[in-house]
Write a structure and sequence with these properties.
heterodimer, A: 246 residues, alpha/beta, Rossmann fold, 2 domains, 6-stranded mixed beta sheet, 9 helices, 10 strands, B: 319 residues, mainly alpha, ABC transporter involved in vitamin B12 uptake, BtuC, 72% helix, globular
Amino acid sequence: MTITADNLSCAYDERAYLTQLSFHVTSHLSILGANGAGKSMLARTLCGLLPYQGSLKLHHSELQTLSSGAIAKTLSYIPAKLELFDRYTTVEEFALLGRYPYKDPYRTYTQSDREDVNSVLMQLKLDTLKQHPVTQLSSGQQQLLLIAQALIQNTTIMIFDEPTANLDPHNTLKFARLFRHLQTRHTTILITHDLALAAYVKGSALFLHDHTASFYEDVNTFLDTDTLARCYRATFHPQTKALLYE
Amino acid sequence: MSKTLTLVILLSLAAMAPFIGTVSLNLQDIFVPGTLSHQIVFELRLPRMLLAFMAGATLALSGLLFQTLFRNILMTPYTLGISSGAILGAGIGMKLGLGSLFFGIGAISLFGFFGAVLTVILLLYLSRFLHHDRGNSLLLLGIALSFFYTAALMILYYLSSAMENHMLLRFTMGSLSTVGYTTALLVSGATLLLFGVLHVKRHELHLFALSDEQARLKGIASERLRLKLLIIASLSIGTLISQTGPIGFIGLIVPHIVRTLYRRNISRLIVPTFFVGGLFLLSCDVIARSLSAGSDIPIGIVTALLGGPFFIYLIVTKK
């Protein structure tokens, strides 16, 4: 499934807006940019949560013409952090919400929905926690659960919003490996500040600056030390892409 | 354990309901038509029990709904100003001296109904201008509206005669007094409508408990559904308040008690909230009627007197 933006503009208000964005995603796109550059706004637009001008196509259909039900079967969004007003939702119940787009409106979830949930939870090694309240999980487990829900939603496009922002190095590494595995079967979009992660997952990179894409090319070109220094106004280690504090 | 205990207490109090009141019954006569005991039980106490149960259920369910839709545990018909709107409406109806012009429905009831429904519509209209932290902003709007309504009500009190003031004050305190089944069945209809809709939409509510965005991303037309749910809730609450006056606290504490006792997600709390809400108000009514021989303490006072300390207990003992 491809995503194509052509002269795309979107806005929260007069100060927070993006304009003249054009890009084409076939397998993977990393969206980078400073805080407040509009990364999450772009992600929300791609999910159909914000109105836009210009053209934004999922495969061959203009996003604005698709119903929210159709969008839910095509793309899933994995937020940076799991937020839940309901403290007693269990891991299994949370994962099951991924089947909502496929549910008969006047019936409850079916046995086959539950089997789907089981197999994905097993695959991500969350099956032993099935009956635990979601709020008792660690950040790493919550991140994994969000991915599980998205996988259960069974969409071709997956959009990740700063997935590693709350993870320790070990969980970041586990996430990166899982992400690579997901890339074999999904079109992925990754919003991140983590340059090493962006390098690891390959694909193209879009850098948001001054309300538009100031850079859009292959990620390896972006990770050139001079380009990084210019984009982020900071110095990075030439090999590891780690931020240099000196 | 505490769940069983609470339910046993509520059920046994509720079971006492037909036998408590100013007149003591002759137990042998209850099922003999024509006797005073029969008449009291079937014409006064059973309708009152039904009304109390349904009123408690409506208040608890609407509290649960508001709290879930806006993800804020302080949302209730009271804190959002809907009850104050009903009181002001009733006050205006009474001041205009419209009597019982409308098909036997008192003007006070009718104006109370419109006061509640118009407040919800006003809140919904104003909430369109809110962008950040909608839940808390809406709550602040509700509180501001309450103050405004209360001030307007004070003007009404000031302008009214002592007799009018007395009528209005009694309405403000809330009352479950009823004769025959008309009121009880009207309120039951409104309650069952709300209960049915919430039960059918329980999976959607579960998604609302995550976030509005997650609900939309799963394919729910969230704005439209929220509007529908709020309109149904305000019709139910409006109908209820028009008949009983405002009864506070149930909408705040019952969803909280049910969550604490059942420890389930929202989609599995609709049925318990319906029953616990109903039994809770019914029990409060039994206590109110057994406390004062000869007269009814208005129910709104009892729910606040009993509910207040219990709620504080729940909050401070929370792990």
